[in-house]
Amino acid sequence: MGDPNDVYKALFELSPDAILIIEGDRFVDCNPAAVKTLRFPSKQALIERYTPGEGDNVLGAHPAELSPMTQPDGRNSFEKADEMMQIAFERGSHCFEWDHVRADGEVFSVEVMLTVVAREPKHILHVVWREIAERKQIEQDLRLAQRLESVGRLAGGIAHDFNNILVVILSHAALLQRDLRAADLPELAEQAREIGAAGDRAAALTRQLLTFSRGHPTRQRPTDLVELLGSLGSMLSRLIGEDIDFELDLPPGPITVQADQSQIEQLVVNLAANARDAMPSGGALRVELSRHAHGKSDVLPRLESGSYAAIRVIDTGEGMTPEQLERAFDPFYTTKPPGSGSGLGLATVHSIAEQCGGGATIESALAEGTTVSVLLPLCSAEPVSAELPPPASEALEGSETILLAEDEDAIRTLMCNALEQCGYHVLRAADGSAALEIAQSYDSNIDLVITDVVMPRLSGPDFVQQLQEIRPGTKVIFMSGYAQDGTVSGATVDASAEILEKPFSPDVLLSSVRKLLDRT
């Protein structure tokens, strides 16, 4: 074996980790990896920056000179660096996180390992830096995911019960408004309309809760973002107002992703509304769509490398502080005045992006505006056009037999009345077990089953599974106020089944029924 000093010198020079030597309280040497990490063109350039004119070709910089004035905890870098070195000399080694500054001014985070090396006349410190930006990003993503999961579970449970209540409120408000207009009582009809409008706002809030909790039923399909964003252009222009210059930049040709079209619309509208609120005195808003080649070294390192669609919403608004930026995706966090925002807009954007297999990032600074970037994986399938609007109300009548399973008495009664008024024959059941008994004993054809998802004794999906054994091919509509990850109670929704999201109005119920019955 050769001279140990030669072996160490080779390891020092060839190590991929940045290694530096501290003597006293100064860096006196560093390896090529440290020079590269600090982005100096050469070791000589680093020496000349921090020890100009001394002529001995030795680095003589205090660790704080290669650092910002303060560390993330607010402490002065000189004071804290001296304390870290003292701890290392007392213990023999010390590991901690630290912010340094590159030659171009960029601040970067490292894990520092100080090890005391005995040498006469005084000991030295062997210093190893390892950059931790990717690790810190993963930790931040994990903390956000845990917060979203905790709040999402609570939101999902609340939303299920709340949506059942809203079905009754919205349906009776719609029926009342129709009857009052027929009776030529426009003032009372307007009051009924206001009840329905308030219910719609509550339903929209519930949908946002369910979206970021991943409890919102979704139907993902190949979606052309060029076509979708193009169709939103005029609506976005009206949304943000005349005092904001709006620009929509779309590339030629389709950019296709696997997504729920309504959720992508919600994502873009949320971002545009946030940008508008950040520009109370006017400004400029730009929505861009492009293809993006994502690499592991980019922001969002947890995403697989590959081809993505990039939606960027750029505003010239007030911007955010670093503290606000760190919490921007948190549910219920808002910088708006009380009563002006739910704090769900960006949380919903983040959740929609993740449900599509992508991610979202924010860049912002005070008085410099904000850019929100959403990456969605591209897919190669042909895009599917949006569904046609439901048929007009006069085409909703029928004479078929429908088995209805719903455990909420008020909802069951309301739905039966709406269906029977349109000519349908309705078999009523208060839960899945009662519905299965009716299906087994009824001696005629059952054309359609409408079932709630969550019911006592026997859930909707379990009931339908047993139903298909005795009446194969029966058409099914699932009603859901809360579905987890695009499934209903853990059972994936069959492509032939419809999902009727609560809350719904009588017209939506009837159009869904007619649509499925007419499907061949």
Could you name the ranges where pLDDT drops below 50 across 5 or more consecutive residues?
388-394, 484-492
Which band does the percent of strand residues land in? 15-25%
- Distance between termini? 82 Å
In what order do the strands lie side by side in the largest sheet? 2-1-5-4-3
CATH topology of the largest domain: Heat Shock Protein 90
- The secondary-structure class comes to alpha/beta
Number of domains: 4
| pLDDT averaged over residues | 84
- Tell me the helix content: 40-55%
CATH architecture of the largest domain: 2-Layer Sandwich
How is the main sheet built? Answer: 5 strands, antiparallel
Output the keywords:
520 residues; alpha/beta; Beta-Lactamase; Heat Shock Protein 90; 4 domains; 5-stranded mixed sheet; 19 strands
Structure description:
The chain is an alpha/beta fold. It has 4 domains: about 5-130, 2-Layer Sandwich (Beta-Lactamase); about 135-210; about 220-375, Histidine kinase-like ATPase, C-terminal domain (Heat Shock Protein 90); about 395-520, Response regulator (Rossmann fold, 3-Layer(aba) Sandwich), CATH 3.40.50. The chain is built from 14 helices and 19 strands. A hairpin with a 5-residue loop joins β3 (about 95-100) and β4. α6 packs across α10, α8 runs antiparallel to α10 and α12 packs parallel to α13 (about 460-470). It is elongated and about 100 Å long. The model is unreliable at about 390-395 and about 485-490 (pLDDT under 50).
